[in-house]
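Tokens in:
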């Protein structure tokens, strides 16, 4: 739609998406599926332009597992970190690469196909250079977003989704920083480093990836950063140093010249000598000196401390300090502010991914990682594909009155529903401690409503954000690591690290499901005052399903039985399934029937008995074997008659003449 405002012509769309990287295309897919009016702006000539250049050495560190032994496509996404979500089976990343760590060119090809096969509306070669607001009472959010591109074309949108990633290189300025090469331009040919001594600034995957490439040809490599190295297997955060890149740690600890140092980069200075070698000194030695006066007149640290660690001159210094969000295109009226501390590279957003400064502006993809930085996977494709879907569902409810998708089941299916989801759901598994399944209980706990993958940071706003009612209590299901199991200094391989017994499930260390029960929806205040390191406020009851070596939580005794007992205790009900005979007996002997009898037997529903089923029940001691006559002489010696009576007494059922109809619990 075209509209003219004060002489300028604006092209109008309900939704504008900035950036056609993975998050922008994922958002476009959901908008297209819902039939919304949207446009994606991409400054390059093709989608995923970041991956056309990065990583420089072309090996992605996102895993592409071809085989899991399962055919469940939802489960398999737990181990496919590259595919975007779609209905099209052709668009699974394993069709684009067989490598466990794929080449970045495969990602570029994949994103091109994702955009073209699904016919997403992407406008290429369009760089948005300015974004501002126009106040308007009729607009969805009280204002329109006005966007201007490099050709001075104007666009107007009701909702703005920013999926531009973090692509501005982090640069540290210090005396002599002009001698530093950037990761974005440094040579990737190892032969260019033959016989050289190299200093790398930074300690993330890009720094170690650069080192790994030249490890075999350099004299030695030193790496300087302000913080200690964080290994992803200790922190359980995939953005920390991954094993595939950490060869330099070996050569450092196995005394092979390479080394790691900690220090503040802003205190450094680099001085070049007549031979072109680079010497490291400290900024305060230069405070009163003219740096151009020549190296001879400058004090070097080794002049005072002759065993100074970086006294050897370097041939090259390479900066690998990561990237930050581009704030420059947003007008002040949008109040797009950087975060505080270690998340200052990201814009400030709420746990709903909406900007703190402007209603209707949502940040998607890598740039939204401030919500779970160094905690979960929200900065990576295998995390933000789910958070993008969550944002889309929030928008559908807010602007189009489409409530959050949910399914209503009878209460007898509660344990089954939880077990099914914790065993296959990929969004819960990848976005652990951030996205949760919510079970809303109906009146008298006769039924429940199941909502998938809701952002728990906005749990207090659930009714407003989803259009669903939570009047009768709720369960929240999330995945968590053990409280003290993640950290740069943790030994995650210690001897008794795994918990096997269900009664010690709360001490589980590895990723495992945790179920929180609330009698009423937590308030904003309770969310704010929750204990540190707790994803949620203190619940009325909590249950940990014990960790499992195979991440397969289907063991009848270790996993399902404790879960069922927990749910029964929360709801004061009996969720066991009974044979018709038992329900018949309960109808005569109890005032209140268990839900499985109410919703099955009383309505004449249930499994029709067959000879095999009866035989199985008789062998398990759950039913009397009617194939034998019931006289003492004819009864088989291994008859279950005695155990039958015992079972009835265990459940407080009086033993009386109807006992041959009885069947006790079917566990």
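Residues out:
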């Amino acid at each position: 739609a075209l509209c003219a405002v004060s002489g300028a012509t604006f092209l109008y769309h309900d939704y504008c998406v900035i950036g056609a990287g993975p998050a922008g295309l994922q958002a476009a897919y959901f908008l297209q599926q819902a039939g919304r009016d949207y446009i994606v702006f991409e400054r390059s000539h093709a989608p995923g332009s970041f991956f056309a250049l990065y990583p420089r050495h072309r090996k992605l560190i996102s895993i592409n597992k071809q085989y899991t032994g399962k055919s469940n496509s939802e489960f398999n996404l737990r181990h496919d970190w590259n595919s975007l979500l779609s209905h099209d089976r052709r668009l699974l990343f394993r069709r684009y690469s067989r490598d466990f760590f794929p080449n970045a060119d495969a990602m570029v090809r994949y994103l091109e196909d994702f955009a073209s096969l699904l016919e997403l509306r992407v406008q290429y070669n369009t760089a948005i250079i300015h974004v501002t607001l126009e106040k308007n009472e009729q607009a969805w959010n009280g204002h329109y977003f006005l966007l201007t591109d490099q050709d001075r074309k104007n666009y107007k949108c009701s909702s703005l989704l920013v999926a531009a990633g973090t692509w501005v290189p982090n640069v540290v300025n210090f005396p002599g920083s002009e001698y530093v090469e950037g990761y974005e331009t440094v040579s990737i040919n190892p032969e260019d480093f033959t016989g050289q001594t190299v200093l790398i600034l930074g300690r993330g995957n890009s720094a170690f990836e650069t080192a790994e490439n030249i490890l075999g040809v350099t004299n030695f490599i030193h790496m300087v950063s302000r913080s200690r190295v964080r290994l992803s297997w200790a922190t359980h955060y995939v953005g920390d140093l991954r094993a595939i890149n950490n060869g330099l740690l070996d050569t450092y600890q196995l005394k092979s010249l390479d080394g790691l140092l900690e220090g503040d980069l802003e205190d450094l200075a680099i001085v070049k000598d007549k031979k072109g070698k680079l010497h490291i000194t400290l900024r305060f030695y230069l405070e009163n000196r003219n740096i151009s006066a020549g190296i001879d007149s400058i004090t070097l640290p080794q002049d005072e401390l002759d065993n100074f660690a970086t006294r050897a001159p370097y041939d090259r210094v390479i900066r690998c300090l990561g990237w930050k969000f581009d704030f420059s295109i947003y007008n002040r009226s949008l109040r797009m502010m950087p975060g505080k501390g270690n998340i200052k590279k990201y814009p400030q957003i709420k746990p709903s991914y909406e900007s703190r400064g402007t209603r209707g502006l949502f940040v998607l993809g890598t740039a939204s990682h401030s919500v779970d930085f160094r905690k979960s996977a929200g900065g990576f494709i295998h995390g933000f594909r789910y958070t993008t879907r969550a944002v889309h569902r929030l928008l559908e409810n807010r602007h189009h009155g489409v409530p959050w998708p949910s399914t209503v089941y009878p209460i007898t299916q509660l344990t089954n529903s939880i077990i099914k989801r914790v065993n296959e759901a990929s969004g819960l598994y990848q976005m652990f401690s951030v996205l949760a399944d919510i079970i809303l209980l109906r009146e008298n706990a006769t039924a429940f409503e199941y909502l998938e993958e809701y952002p728990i940071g906005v749990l207090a706003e659930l009714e407003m954000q989803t259009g669903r009612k939570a009047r009768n209590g709720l369960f929240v299901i999330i995945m968590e690591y053990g409280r003290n199991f993640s950290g740069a200094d943790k030994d995650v391989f210690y001897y008794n690290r795994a918990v096997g017994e269900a009664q010690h499930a709360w001490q589980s260390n590895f990723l495992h499901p945790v179920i929180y029960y609330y009698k009423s929806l937590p308030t904003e205040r309770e969310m704010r005052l929750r204990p540190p390191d707790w994803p949620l406020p203190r619940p009325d009851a909590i249950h940990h399903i014990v960790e499992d070596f195979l991440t397969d939580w289907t063991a009848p005794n270790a996993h399902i039985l404790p879960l069922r007992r927990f749910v029964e205790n929360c709801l004061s009900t009996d969720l066991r399934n009974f044979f018709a005979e038992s329900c018949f007996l309960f109808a005569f002997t109890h005032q209140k029937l268990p839900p499985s009898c109410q919703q099955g037997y009383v309505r004449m529903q249930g499994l029709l008995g067959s000879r095999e089923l009866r035989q199985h029940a008789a062998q398990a001691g759950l039913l009397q074997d009617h194939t034998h006559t019931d006289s003492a002489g004819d009864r088989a010696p291994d008859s279950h008659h005695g155990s039958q009576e015992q079972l009835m007494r265990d459940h407080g059922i009086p033993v009386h003449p109807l006992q041959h109809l009885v069947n006790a619990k079917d566990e």
